[in-house]
Amino acid sequence: MFNGKKVLITAGPTYEPLDPVRFIGNHSTGKMGFALARCLAEQGAEVSLVSGPTALTLEHPQVQVISVMTADEMFAACNKIAPGADLWIFAAAVADYKPKDTAVNKIKKSDASFTIELVKNVDIAATLGKQKRPDQFAVGFALETDQELENARGKLLKKNLNMVVLNSLRDPGAGFKHDTNKITIVKPASVEEYSLKGKDEVALDILESINAEWACLQK
Ligand code: CTP
Ligand code: CA
């Protein structure tokens, strides 16, 4: 079903540097994005996987891995690939903020307290969403702790996505640090709940759901 399709996937965390040795980051491992890339490649898609720092590797003739560190670098890479891709999957845990300034030299400790000024990062999904053509399909992820469905629907609309894969941190076994995941897929006209499964099986569920929704749009 994805044979010959060009796919852009973002994965992993972003690291936002404070100085040459320190950064602001998060616990994302990149597993979900990498699992999706592998499944899509196995189904014949041509995948560009733009990944933040991760321990994972993926060698497949159908997958090009583009390694980035910051949200700005991730955005620059995605911006080049997105117009030529049929499907966009935003699985990265992009840092919402970055330090206003990055010190050239290592910051030395001095005072008892230390304040870092942060500024907002570019929203990759929302910015690309504005340029999405009707023939393109965009998938976002949302990790929520409360008002999950409402927040996921908000992201669907705000970022002009075709579907949002929702993870609730309230579900045991879901989220960053597990090999399993329990997802709910939120689409403009439906909500699909899935049981707790391994991330590779979750990837297959997501792809099947994308396929069904995309087929409806093309009718
Ligand atoms: N996303 C992105 N660029 C950002 C922030 C988020 O591309 N700077 C993408 C994520 O990859 C995900 C979706 O947007 O697919 C939702 O991310 P999330 O962090 O849940 O939403 P935010 O809009 O950042 O809102 P908040 O963190 O306040 O809930
Ligand atoms: Ca966020």
Structural summary, described in words:
By secondary structure, the chain is an alpha/beta fold. It has a single domain (about 5-100, about 120-219), classed as Rossmann fold (3-Layer(aba) Sandwich). Helices cover about 25% and strands about 30% of the residues. It is built from 5 helices and 14 strands. The strands form 4 sheets. The chain has an 8-stranded mixed sheet with strand order 5-4-1-6-9-10-12-13, with helices on both faces. A two-stranded antiparallel ribbon has the order 2-3. Strands 7-8 form a two-stranded antiparallel ribbon. Strand 2 and strand 3 form a beta hairpin. The protein is globular and about 65 Å long. The chain starts with 5 loop residues before the first strand and ends with a helix. About 35% of the residues are buried. The structure holds cytidine-5'-triphosphate and calcium ion. Cytidine-5'-triphosphate binds near residues 71, 90, 96, 123 and 159.
Query: Taking Cα atoms only, what radius of gyration do you get, to the nearest Å?
Result: 18 Å
In quaternary terms, these chains amount to single chain
* CATH homologous superfamily classification: CoaB-like
Shape from CA axes? globular
Structural class label: alpha/beta
Low-confidence stretches: none
Question: What would CATH call the class?
Answer: Alpha Beta
CATH topology: Rossmann fold
Quickly count the domains.
Answer: 1
Strand elements, count: 14
Alpha-carbon distance between the two ends: 15 Å
Largest sheet: 8 strands, mixed
Q: Biggest sheet: strands side by side, in what order?
A: 5-4-1-6-9-10-12-13
CATH architecture assignment: 3-Layer(aba) Sandwich
**Ligand list:** cytidine-5'-triphosphate, calcium ion
Total helical elements: 5
> From N to C, what is the helix and strand string?
EEEHEEHEEEHEHEEEEEH
Helix content: 25-40%
**What percent strand?**
25-35%
Mean pLDDT: 94
